[in-house]
């Protein structure tokens, strides 16, 4: 039985949208809140990393055609929407205890906004190629916590890009010092603090970008 033009068009359209479901309207919101809910209420970290603030989180995805630019590879702008989900996995897992305790004791959610992010692009990501984003806490000062993320090939570990993000922790309008947050999360020790401050040296360049605020165009 021959297919009609309308049937073929409908089938092709359906396949196209299935292959690009990641870019549906509100798809990012669904991915974000699914990740947030899972790591807040369901996921239990492995015992060997449960008390490690420097634990690694891995988020795996592909880049559909609608994420690609005119050069036929993943558009630079779409790296940041993937980072949102990958970093959420990490931050909620690391600060899960603190998030739930603040909600229980103060009736509000701890807010962990991004203060800045810088990304270095090394190689292109081609359409539908599987890649992973490996993220971990790099270091901190009293106000800012820094997360390093790497876009990699899951098998060969070939590096596509890497990003550095700085976070601040807010309880209402109050900034929560990072060492205080780590103590409340049962993640702090003198050795952990030493390692966190040591990692800060890799983030100094991101901090220095604040000086550009005074530069006129």
């Amino acid at each position: 039985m021959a297919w009609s033009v309308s049937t073929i068009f409908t089938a092709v359209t359906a396949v196209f949208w299935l292959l690009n479901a990641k870019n549906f309207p509100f798809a990012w919101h669904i991915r974000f809140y699914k990740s947030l809910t899972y790591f807040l209420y369901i996921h239990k970290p492995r015992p060997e990393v449960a008390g490690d603030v420097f634990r690694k989180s891995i988020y795996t995805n592909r880049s559909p055609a609608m994420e690609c630019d005119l050069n036929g590879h993943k558009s630079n702008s779409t790296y940041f929407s993937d980072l949102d989900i990958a970093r959420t996995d990490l931050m909620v897992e690391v600060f899960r205890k603190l998030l739930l305790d603040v909600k229980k004791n103060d009736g509000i959610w701890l807010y962990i906004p991004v203060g800045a992010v810088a990304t270095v692009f090394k190689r292109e990501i081609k359409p539908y190629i599987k890649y992973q984003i490996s993220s971990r806490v790099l270091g901190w000062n009293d106000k800012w916590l820094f997360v390093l993320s790497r876009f990699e090939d899951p098998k060969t570990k070939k590096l596509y890009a890497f990003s550095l993000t700085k976070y601040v922790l807010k309880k209402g309008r109050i900034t929560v010092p990072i060492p205080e947050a780590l103590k409340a999360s049962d993640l702090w020790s003198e050795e952990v603090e030493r390692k966190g401050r040591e990692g800060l040296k890799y983030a100094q360049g991101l901090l220095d970008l604040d000086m550009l605020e005074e530069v006129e165009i």
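The mean pLDDT is 92. The longest helix spans residues 78-94.
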